[in-house]
Amino acid sequence: MGLPKPSGPFVVGCADIMTKVVQMPTNLTCPSSVLEKGVDFGMFARIYYPTEDESSKHYKEAKILPDEQTSLYASSMFSIFKLKWLSGLASFALRGALQHSFIDAPLIPQSKYDKTLGLDDETNKKFPLVVFSHGLIGFRHIYSTFCSDLASHGYVVASVEHRDGSALPTYFMDPETNKATSLPYMDHPTTENADEEIIQMRNKQVNRRAEEVSKLLDLLHVVNKEPEIIENLFPSTFDLKTLKGRLDVEEPLIIGHSFGGATTLNSINKDDRFKCAIVLDPWFLPLTEDEFYESGLKKPTFTIFTERFNWNKNIQRCQRFLDGLPKDYGEVITLKNAVHWDQCDGPGFMPWFLRAIGKFTGGIPQDHDYQQGIILQRQIILDYFGKYLKQKTYPMPLLTDDYLLPDNFFLGMRVFNNKEKTEEVIEDEETIPSKEQVVETGKEEMMKKEEL
Q: Is 411 left (phi over 0), alpha (psi -120 to 50) or beta?
Protein backbone atom coordinates (compact mmCIF):
# COMPACT_ATOMS: atom_id res chain seq x y z
CA MET A 1 0.00 0.00 0.00
CA GLY A 2 2.70 2.53 0.97
CA LEU A 3 2.27 6.08 2.23
CA PRO A 4 0.36 8.86 0.48
CA LYS A 5 2.73 11.28 -1.24
CA PRO A 6 3.25 14.69 0.39
CA SER A 7 0.66 17.16 -0.87
CA GLY A 8 2.73 20.35 -1.06
CA PRO A 9 4.78 21.97 -3.84
CA PHE A 10 8.19 21.08 -2.36
CA VAL A 11 10.18 17.86 -2.51
CA VAL A 12 11.22 16.88 1.02
CA GLY A 13 14.68 16.33 2.47
CA CYS A 14 15.52 14.82 5.85
CA ALA A 15 18.61 14.73 8.03
CA ASP A 16 19.41 13.25 11.44
CA ILE A 17 21.14 15.03 14.27
CA MET A 18 22.59 13.40 17.40
CA THR A 19 24.41 15.28 20.13
CA LYS A 20 26.76 13.88 22.75
CA VAL A 21 25.76 12.36 26.09
CA VAL A 22 25.79 14.81 28.97
CA GLN A 23 25.27 12.42 31.89
CA MET A 24 24.97 8.62 31.92
CA PRO A 25 22.72 6.65 34.32
CA THR A 26 24.29 4.67 37.17
CA ASN A 27 23.23 1.30 35.76
CA LEU A 28 22.19 1.11 32.12
CA THR A 29 21.11 -2.55 32.45
CA CYS A 30 18.23 -1.36 34.65
CA PRO A 31 15.63 0.23 32.32
CA SER A 32 14.29 2.65 34.93
CA SER A 33 17.78 4.11 35.47
CA VAL A 34 17.28 6.28 32.39
CA LEU A 35 14.84 8.34 34.47
CA GLU A 36 17.35 9.14 37.22
CA LYS A 37 17.67 12.83 37.97
CA GLY A 38 20.26 14.53 35.79
CA VAL A 39 20.54 11.75 33.19
CA ASP A 40 20.90 13.30 29.76
CA PHE A 41 21.63 11.23 26.65
CA GLY A 42 21.84 14.30 24.46
CA MET A 43 19.47 14.91 21.59
CA PHE A 44 18.45 12.63 18.72
CA ALA A 45 16.04 13.92 16.08
CA ARG A 46 15.19 13.78 12.41
CA ILE A 47 14.70 17.10 10.66
CA TYR A 48 12.39 17.36 7.64
CA TYR A 49 12.69 20.37 5.32
CA PRO A 50 11.99 21.55 1.76
CA THR A 51 14.56 20.66 -0.89
CA GLU A 52 14.73 20.92 -4.69
CA ASP A 53 13.44 18.34 -7.14
CA GLU A 54 16.68 18.29 -9.15
CA SER A 55 18.89 18.08 -6.06
CA SER A 56 16.88 15.24 -4.53
CA LYS A 57 17.62 12.94 -7.47
CA HIS A 58 21.18 12.54 -6.24
CA TYR A 59 20.20 11.31 -2.77
CA LYS A 60 18.72 8.13 -1.29
CA GLU A 61 15.08 8.08 -0.34
CA ALA A 62 14.50 7.47 3.37
CA LYS A 63 13.15 4.08 4.46
CA ILE A 64 11.25 2.94 7.52
CA LEU A 65 14.27 0.76 8.35
CA PRO A 66 17.17 3.23 8.34
CA ASP A 67 20.58 2.39 6.92
CA GLU A 68 22.11 3.07 10.34
CA GLN A 69 21.31 0.37 12.93
CA THR A 70 18.94 -1.48 10.58
CA SER A 71 18.84 -4.70 12.62
CA LEU A 72 18.09 -2.81 15.84
CA TYR A 73 15.01 -1.16 14.33
CA ALA A 74 13.83 -4.34 12.58
CA SER A 75 14.03 -6.56 15.66
CA SER A 76 12.59 -3.92 17.98
CA MET A 77 9.48 -3.38 15.85
CA PHE A 78 8.23 -6.88 16.64
CA SER A 79 9.73 -7.63 20.05
CA ILE A 80 6.93 -5.72 21.81
CA PHE A 81 4.43 -8.21 20.34
CA LYS A 82 6.59 -11.16 21.46
CA LEU A 83 7.24 -11.76 17.75
CA LYS A 84 10.97 -11.12 17.47
CA TRP A 85 11.20 -14.07 15.05
CA LEU A 86 9.61 -11.75 12.46
CA SER A 87 12.57 -9.33 12.41
CA GLY A 88 14.42 -11.18 9.66
CA LEU A 89 11.31 -11.32 7.51
CA ALA A 90 10.63 -7.66 8.28
CA SER A 91 14.11 -6.62 7.17
CA PHE A 92 13.47 -8.31 3.84
CA ALA A 93 9.85 -7.22 3.39
CA LEU A 94 10.48 -3.60 4.39
CA ARG A 95 13.74 -3.08 2.52
CA GLY A 96 11.87 -1.05 -0.12
CA ALA A 97 9.46 0.75 2.24
CA LEU A 98 10.12 4.34 1.22
CA GLN A 99 9.00 7.48 3.07
CA HIS A 100 8.92 10.25 0.41
CA SER A 101 11.92 12.20 1.75
CA PHE A 102 15.54 12.29 0.60
CA ILE A 103 18.35 11.77 3.08
CA ASP A 104 20.73 14.74 3.45
CA ALA A 105 19.43 16.50 0.32
CA PRO A 106 20.39 20.21 0.44
CA LEU A 107 18.04 22.83 1.82
CA ILE A 108 16.10 24.72 -0.84
CA PRO A 109 17.66 28.14 -1.64
CA GLN A 110 15.80 31.15 -0.27
CA SER A 111 15.02 32.57 -3.71
CA LYS A 112 13.34 29.36 -4.90
CA TYR A 113 11.45 29.02 -1.62
CA ASP A 114 10.13 32.57 -1.94
CA LYS A 115 9.17 32.15 -5.59
CA THR A 116 7.33 28.86 -5.02
CA LEU A 117 5.24 30.29 -2.17
CA GLY A 118 4.84 33.71 -3.79
CA LEU A 119 6.42 35.54 -0.84
CA ASP A 120 7.02 39.28 -1.16
CA ASP A 121 9.39 41.59 0.68
CA GLU A 122 6.89 42.23 3.49
CA THR A 123 6.36 38.54 4.26
CA ASN A 124 8.12 36.55 6.97
CA LYS A 125 10.31 34.30 4.83
CA LYS A 126 11.57 32.05 7.61
CA PHE A 127 10.54 28.40 7.77
CA PRO A 128 7.61 27.76 10.15
CA LEU A 129 8.97 25.41 12.82
CA VAL A 130 7.22 22.31 14.23
CA VAL A 131 8.38 19.83 16.88
CA PHE A 132 6.92 16.29 16.76
CA SER A 133 6.78 13.87 19.73
CA HIS A 134 6.24 10.14 19.06
CA GLY A 135 4.15 7.66 21.05
CA LEU A 136 5.02 4.50 22.97
CA ILE A 137 7.09 2.04 20.88
CA GLY A 138 7.64 4.83 18.38
CA PHE A 139 10.78 6.48 17.02
CA ARG A 140 11.83 9.63 15.21
CA HIS A 141 10.73 8.61 11.69
CA ILE A 142 7.60 6.51 12.24
CA TYR A 143 5.44 9.62 11.64
CA SER A 144 7.10 10.63 8.38
CA THR A 145 3.74 10.92 6.61
CA PHE A 146 2.79 13.93 8.78
CA CYS A 147 6.30 15.41 8.99
CA SER A 148 7.00 15.12 5.25
CA ASP A 149 3.66 16.62 4.35
CA LEU A 150 4.30 19.68 6.49
CA ALA A 151 7.81 20.02 5.01
CA SER A 152 6.36 19.82 1.49
CA HIS A 153 4.41 22.98 2.33
CA GLY A 154 7.49 24.86 3.50
CA TYR A 155 7.73 23.91 7.17
CA VAL A 156 10.77 22.56 9.00
CA VAL A 157 9.78 19.70 11.31
CA ALA A 158 12.04 18.30 14.03
CA SER A 159 10.89 14.84 15.16
CA VAL A 160 12.51 13.82 18.43
CA GLU A 161 13.49 10.24 19.35
CA HIS A 162 12.85 10.09 23.08
CA ARG A 163 15.36 8.50 25.46
CA ASP A 164 13.01 7.98 28.44
CA GLY A 165 12.47 4.26 27.83
CA SER A 166 9.42 4.74 25.59
CA ALA A 167 11.09 4.53 22.16
CA LEU A 168 11.13 0.89 21.21
CA PRO A 169 14.35 1.16 19.24
CA THR A 170 16.78 3.92 20.09
CA TYR A 171 20.48 4.23 20.77
CA PHE A 172 23.20 6.70 21.72
CA MET A 173 26.94 6.98 21.23
CA ASP A 174 28.66 5.71 24.38
CA PRO A 175 31.12 8.44 25.46
CA GLU A 176 33.67 5.86 26.70
CA THR A 177 33.64 3.40 23.79
CA ASN A 178 32.35 5.73 21.06
CA LYS A 179 30.08 2.87 19.95
CA ALA A 180 26.36 2.83 19.31
CA THR A 181 24.60 1.51 22.40
CA SER A 182 20.90 0.66 22.50
CA LEU A 183 18.63 1.84 25.29
CA PRO A 184 16.21 -0.61 26.94
CA TYR A 185 12.48 -0.21 26.45
CA MET A 186 10.31 -0.08 29.59
CA ASP A 187 7.70 -2.72 28.87
CA HIS A 188 5.01 -1.86 31.41
CA PRO A 189 1.19 -2.03 31.28
CA THR A 190 -0.73 0.85 29.72
CA THR A 191 -4.08 -0.08 31.28
CA GLU A 192 -6.05 2.17 33.59
CA ASN A 193 -5.83 -0.40 36.39
CA ALA A 194 -2.01 -0.20 36.52
CA ASP A 195 -0.69 0.13 40.07
CA GLU A 196 0.45 3.45 41.51
CA GLU A 197 4.13 2.68 40.98
CA ILE A 198 3.58 2.26 37.23
CA ILE A 199 1.53 5.46 37.02
CA GLN A 200 4.29 7.38 38.83
CA MET A 201 6.85 5.94 36.43
CA ARG A 202 4.76 7.05 33.45
CA ASN A 203 4.57 10.52 34.98
CA LYS A 204 8.36 10.62 35.30
CA GLN A 205 8.57 9.61 31.65
CA VAL A 206 6.18 12.30 30.41
CA ASN A 207 8.11 14.93 32.37
CA ARG A 208 11.43 13.70 30.96
CA ARG A 209 9.89 13.76 27.50
CA ALA A 210 8.77 17.37 27.98
CA GLU A 211 12.32 18.24 29.03
CA GLU A 212 13.62 16.62 25.84
CA VAL A 213 11.15 18.58 23.73
CA SER A 214 12.31 21.84 25.32
CA LYS A 215 15.96 20.86 24.86
CA LEU A 216 15.27 20.11 21.20
CA LEU A 217 13.82 23.59 20.82
CA ASP A 218 16.94 24.95 22.56
CA LEU A 219 19.07 23.07 20.02
CA LEU A 220 17.05 24.50 17.13
CA HIS A 221 17.75 27.99 18.48
CA VAL A 222 21.47 27.15 18.30
CA VAL A 223 21.03 25.79 14.76
CA ASN A 224 19.40 29.07 13.83
CA LYS A 225 22.08 31.24 15.44
CA GLU A 226 25.39 29.34 15.73
CA PRO A 227 25.15 26.00 13.88
CA GLU A 228 28.94 25.83 13.49
CA ILE A 229 29.34 25.03 17.21
CA ILE A 230 27.15 21.90 17.01
CA GLU A 231 28.95 18.55 16.87
CA ASN A 232 26.67 16.12 15.05
CA LEU A 233 27.58 12.55 16.02
CA PHE A 234 25.31 11.10 13.35
CA PRO A 235 27.07 10.34 10.04
CA SER A 236 25.16 12.98 8.08
CA THR A 237 26.39 15.08 5.16
CA PHE A 238 23.67 17.69 5.57
CA ASP A 239 25.08 21.14 6.25
CA LEU A 240 23.32 22.54 9.33
CA LYS A 241 24.81 25.96 8.56
CA THR A 242 22.35 26.31 5.66
CA LEU A 243 19.56 26.60 8.25
CA LYS A 244 21.23 29.55 9.98
CA GLY A 245 18.83 32.46 10.31
CA ARG A 246 16.09 30.67 8.38
CA LEU A 247 14.04 29.07 11.19
CA ASP A 248 11.11 30.88 12.76
CA VAL A 249 12.17 29.96 16.29
CA GLU A 250 9.99 32.70 17.78
CA GLU A 251 6.74 31.00 16.72
CA PRO A 252 7.30 27.25 17.28
CA LEU A 253 4.39 24.81 16.98
CA ILE A 254 4.13 21.30 18.39
CA ILE A 255 2.33 18.05 17.61
CA GLY A 256 2.37 14.58 19.18
CA HIS A 257 0.65 11.20 19.10
CA SER A 258 -0.57 9.07 22.02
CA PHE A 259 2.17 9.29 24.71
CA GLY A 260 3.52 12.02 22.44
CA GLY A 261 0.12 13.68 22.73
CA ALA A 262 0.50 13.70 26.53
CA THR A 263 4.05 14.99 26.03
CA THR A 264 2.77 17.77 23.79
CA LEU A 265 0.18 18.83 26.36
CA ASN A 266 2.80 18.72 29.10
CA SER A 267 5.19 20.77 26.97
CA ILE A 268 2.76 23.57 26.14
CA ASN A 269 1.75 23.56 29.80
CA LYS A 270 5.35 24.31 30.86
CA ASP A 271 7.24 25.88 27.95
CA ASP A 272 5.75 29.23 27.00
CA ARG A 273 7.66 29.31 23.71
CA PHE A 274 5.23 26.93 21.99
CA LYS A 275 2.32 28.86 20.49
CA CYS A 276 -0.28 26.18 19.81
CA ALA A 277 -0.56 22.41 19.62
CA ILE A 278 -2.17 19.49 17.82
CA VAL A 279 -2.58 16.23 19.72
CA LEU A 280 -3.43 12.91 18.08
CA ASP A 281 -5.13 10.29 20.28
CA PRO A 282 -3.65 11.80 23.47
CA TRP A 283 -3.15 9.39 26.38
CA PHE A 284 -3.96 11.31 29.56
CA LEU A 285 -3.01 8.77 32.25
CA PRO A 286 0.61 10.01 32.71
CA LEU A 287 -0.52 13.58 33.48
CA THR A 288 -1.06 14.13 37.21
CA GLU A 289 -3.59 16.41 38.89
CA ASP A 290 -1.18 18.94 40.40
CA GLU A 291 1.26 19.18 37.50
CA PHE A 292 -1.25 19.37 34.70
CA TYR A 293 -4.90 20.07 35.44
CA GLU A 294 -4.50 22.57 38.27
CA SER A 295 -1.73 24.78 36.91
CA GLY A 296 0.30 25.78 33.92
CA LEU A 297 0.00 27.74 30.72
CA LYS A 298 -3.12 27.82 28.56
CA LYS A 299 -2.53 27.48 24.81
CA PRO A 300 -4.85 26.71 21.87
CA THR A 301 -5.00 22.95 21.32
CA PHE A 302 -6.64 20.92 18.56
CA THR A 303 -7.33 17.24 19.28
CA ILE A 304 -7.90 14.53 16.68
CA PHE A 305 -9.07 11.20 18.08
CA THR A 306 -9.56 7.96 16.15
CA GLU A 307 -12.97 6.39 16.70
CA ARG A 308 -11.75 3.07 18.13
CA PHE A 309 -9.18 4.49 20.53
CA ASN A 310 -11.05 6.08 23.42
CA TRP A 311 -12.32 4.79 26.75
CA ASN A 312 -14.29 6.50 29.54
CA LYS A 313 -11.47 7.63 31.83
CA ASN A 314 -9.42 9.05 28.97
CA ILE A 315 -12.44 11.01 27.74
CA GLN A 316 -13.14 12.29 31.25
CA ARG A 317 -9.57 13.54 31.62
CA CYS A 318 -9.66 15.13 28.17
CA GLN A 319 -12.91 16.91 29.01
CA ARG A 320 -11.41 18.18 32.26
CA PHE A 321 -8.45 19.56 30.33
CA LEU A 322 -10.76 21.26 27.82
CA ASP A 323 -12.91 22.73 30.60
CA GLY A 324 -9.82 24.43 32.01
CA LEU A 325 -9.04 26.25 28.76
CA PRO A 326 -10.31 29.71 27.83
CA LYS A 327 -13.25 29.89 25.42
CA ASP A 328 -12.42 28.64 21.88
CA TYR A 329 -8.96 27.41 22.91
CA GLY A 330 -9.82 23.70 22.78
CA GLU A 331 -11.37 21.81 19.84
CA VAL A 332 -11.93 18.07 19.40
CA ILE A 333 -12.88 15.95 16.41
CA THR A 334 -12.87 12.19 15.85
CA LEU A 335 -11.94 10.31 12.67
CA LYS A 336 -14.64 7.73 11.97
CA ASN A 337 -13.88 4.06 11.40
CA ALA A 338 -10.23 4.55 12.37
CA VAL A 339 -7.83 2.91 14.83
CA HIS A 340 -4.91 4.16 16.89
CA TRP A 341 -2.35 3.05 14.27
CA ASP A 342 -3.98 5.31 11.67
CA GLN A 343 -1.88 8.18 13.00
CA CYS A 344 1.55 6.76 12.10
CA ASP A 345 3.35 5.15 9.13
CA GLY A 346 2.84 1.54 10.25
CA PRO A 347 -0.32 0.57 8.30
CA GLY A 348 1.18 1.95 5.10
CA PHE A 349 4.00 -0.61 5.22
CA MET A 350 2.65 -3.51 7.28
CA PRO A 351 -1.13 -3.73 6.74
CA TRP A 352 -1.08 -7.53 6.82
CA PHE A 353 0.74 -7.60 10.16
CA LEU A 354 -1.43 -4.96 11.82
CA ARG A 355 -4.58 -6.65 10.55
CA ALA A 356 -3.32 -9.91 12.06
CA ILE A 357 -2.60 -8.23 15.39
CA GLY A 358 -5.94 -6.43 15.13
CA LYS A 359 -7.86 -9.70 15.02
CA PHE A 360 -6.68 -10.38 18.56
CA THR A 361 -6.74 -6.86 20.05
CA GLY A 362 -10.04 -5.34 18.98
CA GLY A 363 -9.74 -5.30 15.24
CA ILE A 364 -9.26 -3.11 12.21
CA PRO A 365 -12.64 -2.55 10.52
CA GLN A 366 -13.14 -4.28 7.19
CA ASP A 367 -13.91 -1.06 5.32
CA HIS A 368 -10.89 0.64 6.86
CA ASP A 369 -9.16 3.17 4.55
CA TYR A 370 -5.77 4.13 6.01
CA GLN A 371 -4.59 6.36 3.18
CA GLN A 372 -7.76 8.45 3.07
CA GLY A 373 -7.58 8.93 6.85
CA ILE A 374 -3.98 10.13 6.65
CA ILE A 375 -4.75 12.56 3.82
CA LEU A 376 -7.72 14.06 5.70
CA GLN A 377 -5.78 14.43 8.96
CA ARG A 378 -2.83 16.03 7.17
CA GLN A 379 -5.11 18.68 5.67
CA ILE A 380 -6.60 19.56 9.04
CA ILE A 381 -3.10 19.83 10.54
CA LEU A 382 -2.13 22.23 7.75
CA ASP A 383 -5.34 24.23 8.19
CA TYR A 384 -4.90 24.61 11.96
CA PHE A 385 -1.23 25.55 11.96
CA GLY A 386 -1.81 27.74 8.90
CA LYS A 387 -4.54 29.67 10.68
CA TYR A 388 -2.28 30.45 13.63
CA LEU A 389 0.61 31.52 11.39
CA LYS A 390 -1.72 33.81 9.48
CA GLN A 391 -3.26 35.65 12.44
CA LYS A 392 -0.85 34.87 15.37
CA THR A 393 -3.46 35.89 17.91
CA TYR A 394 -5.73 34.00 20.31
CA PRO A 395 -8.35 32.63 20.18
CA MET A 396 -8.02 31.01 16.77
CA PRO A 397 -10.75 28.34 16.45
CA LEU A 398 -10.62 26.34 13.24
CA LEU A 399 -14.12 24.86 13.42
CA THR A 400 -16.04 28.02 12.60
CA ASP A 401 -19.26 28.11 10.56
CA ASP A 402 -17.36 28.61 7.31
CA TYR A 403 -14.98 25.65 7.83
CA LEU A 404 -16.05 22.53 5.94
CA LEU A 405 -15.18 19.57 8.15
CA PRO A 406 -15.18 16.37 6.03
CA ASP A 407 -17.97 13.87 6.71
CA ASN A 408 -15.28 11.37 7.78
CA PHE A 409 -15.12 13.19 11.14
CA PHE A 410 -17.60 13.96 13.87
CA LEU A 411 -17.30 16.74 16.43
CA GLY A 412 -16.26 15.77 19.93
CA MET A 413 -15.32 12.33 21.27
CA ARG A 414 -16.95 9.15 22.48
CA VAL A 415 -16.20 5.59 23.52
CA PHE A 416 -16.51 3.13 20.66
CA ASN A 417 -18.79 0.31 21.79
CA ASN A 418 -18.97 -3.09 20.18
CA LYS A 419 -18.62 -6.67 21.35
CA GLU A 420 -14.98 -6.82 20.30
CA LYS A 421 -13.77 -3.72 22.20
CA THR A 422 -13.49 -3.08 25.92
CA GLU A 423 -13.02 0.33 27.46
CA GLU A 424 -9.38 -0.35 28.34
CA VAL A 425 -6.39 -1.34 26.30
CA ILE A 426 -5.59 -4.99 26.92
CA GLU A 427 -1.98 -6.11 26.84
CA ASP A 428 -1.46 -9.66 28.04
CA GLU A 429 -0.24 -12.93 26.63
CA GLU A 430 -3.73 -13.97 25.50
CA THR A 431 -3.96 -11.08 23.04
CA ILE A 432 -0.62 -11.86 21.36
CA PRO A 433 -1.16 -14.02 18.27
CA SER A 434 1.07 -17.00 17.65
CA LYS A 435 3.53 -17.30 14.80
CA GLU A 436 1.10 -19.58 12.98
CA GLN A 437 -1.80 -17.14 13.39
CA VAL A 438 0.20 -14.20 12.02
CA VAL A 439 1.47 -16.21 9.07
CA GLU A 440 -2.03 -17.50 8.30
CA THR A 441 -3.50 -13.98 8.43
CA GLY A 442 -0.69 -12.77 6.18
CA LYS A 443 -1.61 -15.47 3.65
CA GLU A 444 -5.25 -14.35 3.77
CA GLU A 445 -4.24 -10.76 3.03
CA MET A 446 -2.08 -11.84 0.09
CA MET A 447 -4.95 -13.94 -1.34
CA LYS A 448 -7.27 -10.91 -1.13
CA LYS A 449 -4.75 -8.83 -3.08
CA GLU A 450 -4.45 -11.54 -5.75
CA GLU A 451 -8.25 -11.68 -6.10
CA LEU A 452 -8.32 -7.93 -6.66
A: beta
- Hey, what's the torsion of the CAs at 310, 314, 315, 320, to 10 degrees? -160
Q: Name beta bridge partners: 257.
A: 280
Give the residue among 350, 422, 353, 359 at the shortest CA–CA distance from 96.
350
Query: Per DSSP, which regions of 71-224 are E strands?
Result: 98-103, 129-133, 156-160, 171-173, 180-182
The pTM for the full model equals 0.89
Tell me what pLDDT residue 298 has. Answer: 86
Min mean pLDDT across 156-170, 180-194, 210-224, 438-452 is at 438-452
Q: Does residue 192 come out as left (phi exceeding 0), alpha (psi in the -120 to 50 range) or beta?
A: alpha
Mean pLDDT, the chain, as a whole number?
Answer: 85
Decide: residue 373, CB within 10 A, 0-12 exposed, 13-18 middle, 19+ buried.
Answer: buried
Rounded CA gap, 140 and 149, in Å? 15
Cα(46)–Cα(130) distance, rounded to whole angstroms? 12
* Topology, domain 12-448: Rossmann fold (3.40.50)
Contact status, residue 295 vs residue 399, Cβ threshold 8 Å? no
Q: What angle do CA 309, 310, 316 make, to 5 degrees?
A: 160
Among 205, 203, 159, smallest CA distance to 183 is for 205
Cα separation of 273 and 299, whole Å? Answer: 10
DSSP 338-365: --GGGGSSHHHH-HHHHHHHHHHHT---
Q: How far is C-alpha 350 from the chain's CA centre? A: 17
Spatial neighbors of 378 by CB under 8 A, at least 6 apart, are: 4, 7, 145, 146, 149
Rounded Cα distance, 218 and 225, in Å: 11
Mind listing the pLDDT tens digit for each residue in 395-412? 999 999 999 999 999 999
